[in-house]
Amino acid sequence: MSDPLRPEEYVEPNCVLCDPALGRKAPAERIPQQRISARLDELMGKKEFAEAEVMLKNWVNEAEAYNDRQGLFFVLNEMMGYYRKTGKKAEGYAAVERALGMLTELGYTDTVSGATALTNAATVYTSFEDYESALPLFRRAREIYETNAQDNEYKLAGLYNNMATSLTARGEYEEADALYEKALALLEKVENSELEMAMIWLNRLDILLSREGDSLDEKKADPCLEMAKKYLDSEKVERNSYYSFMADKCVGVYDYFGWFLYAQELRERIREIDERA
Q: How many whole angstroms separate alpha carbon 251 and alpha carbon 19?
């Protein structure tokens, strides 16, 4: 559900002058963060992954050439998401190390920007089943977010969701489900969060499967599947590349629980969106 993050969600506002206390020089030029995000979304929506990676690497070089440290931090955060989605562990870990290594330099250690980078990093570790590395970062980020919860509901909900995934994998089911509940309660207050709520309802099925395994009565899964379907079918949700990306994550779940007709309906929606792209 951490997708997609915009620059303003993890980069503090630019200042005109550098901070002498931190010894930073003002950049010669700043990279165009919004334009980079839009182009990355476009390439990922078209599944042009090689082109997306080349673009990100080029902007790393540009940010370094301009001495745009905030810009570099932004691109590294985008890289974390890219390498997580494409399953490139070594590259993802390298992006994590570089981004987190900049927190003190940029003065982000106890800021929302820093918390979002910590969450991004923890989510990378979670995607590669490195839960021991992920959970301390999630907990650090949680402290910061909960101290600054107002106007950061979406980001805090994302943290709860991703942290719950790690906890489920470790068998800590009660804490995981409590975090899913917290995430849903927050997202109910956030506009355009239907797809994220659908994913959380499906994520909760992992707890049922982990607890009961093959003996799981499929009827116990129906309430979660119905709630996710409600959000996926909502007329409020735009059928765009983000919908295609999120729906693709859901298809296999519905197939697994025998909802074959609905899984096929989701595939058809994805096909129509991708053909328009």
A: 49
Token pair for 194: 């239907």
Between the CA atoms of 161, 126, 82 and 46, what dihedral angle is there, to the nearest 10 degrees? -60
pTM of the model: 0.83
CA–CA gap between residue 224 and residue 24 (Å, rounded): 50
Q: Are 269 and 247 in contact (CB under 8 A)?
A: yes
| Amino acid occupying residue 151 | D
Q: State pLDDT tens for residues 223-269.
A: 999 999 999 999 999 999 889 989 999 999 999 999 999 999 999 99
Q: Are residues 255 and 263 in contact, defined by beta-carbon separation less than 8 angstroms?
A: yes
276, 228 Cβ separation under 8 angstroms: no
The values of phi and psi at residue 2, to 5°, are -70, 5
Length of the chain: 277
Hey, what are 275's tokens?
């053909």
Tokens 């330099």 belong to: 105
